[in-house]
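Following up on my earlier thread - several people asked me to post the actual chain instead of describing it. Fair enough. Here it is, all 321 residues.
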Amino acid sequence: MCSSVDDALTPAAISGHVPVLFNETLELLAPRAGVKLLDGTFGGGGHSRALLNAAEAVTLVAIDRDPDAHERAKLVADEFAERFRFYPMNFGDLADLNETGFDGILFDFGLSSFQLDQTERGFSFRFDAPVDMRMNPQAGIGAAEFLETSDEEGLVRAVRNYGEEKRWRRVVQAIIDARGSGRLQRTHSLAALVADAVGPTPRGRKAVNPATRTFQGIRIEINDELSAIERCLPAAFERLAPGGVLAAISFHSLEDRIVKRFCRKMAGRPEHANDYRPIEERTVQAKMVSTRPILPTEEEIKMNPRSRSARMRAIRKLSND
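Reply from S.P.:
Thanks for posting it. Predicted structure:
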């Protein structure tokens, strides 16, 4: 076992998965003998394994709704025995977890490298695959079925609200027009359809695949991701021991906005620009670790380009006395 955070497992040593903000997470949660931690998004297990390796007698509870994550968790359980427990559940259902008293809780709301790189999951249009995108392929409907059957309101919510696609009207209409044609069934044909609807990237703007935003919005919609974040944060804070740290890593503005407002609310600060409530109407239950998000270093971004949009926010729960 490693005797300090500095000796913990390095990202390069974690096969198949590079956890973002690796060093920052270890420094923030400060694993030490006797603490109890929660990894609310086990994913590839990179953060969990690092936290367990950072000090003797660290106990870690992990959850994830992805059945593949459950299989990967078995390897960690074999290695760390009673120090590690895994529950196959959605972090949005954290209120149902019958464990509490955590000294640190971590959420990493991005897709894991395993999910992105598994062709058959249909998260990425880098590969031609069935359009699925479910975090748990054993529950709910896949993205293709959603595109074929959703009412227009659902499509608008996915493309405009969650995908933040400016040309959402054209994309939504293109999806409706393509129903029954087979073009909504495969990632490559769907990406091409969206690209045709969006049109070329305006000159002077950073070239990003035109389907990126729509794919993101569809994934968020069918997995109920934002609602899950809104539910998990208060449930996590309730299970945090006094003095414990709650940290959340987000990858786009919609996730980060929810986390930011929650952190400010717990710290008794205005939640947004139009929050004019007097100070006596606020309750201070935590202290913000930093007023600004913690961002990856340039070195990390070079090593792991997927980390470029990551941002971490954290609060420390105040003691009762």
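The chain has two domains: 5-114+225-317, 127-223. That should answer part of your original question.
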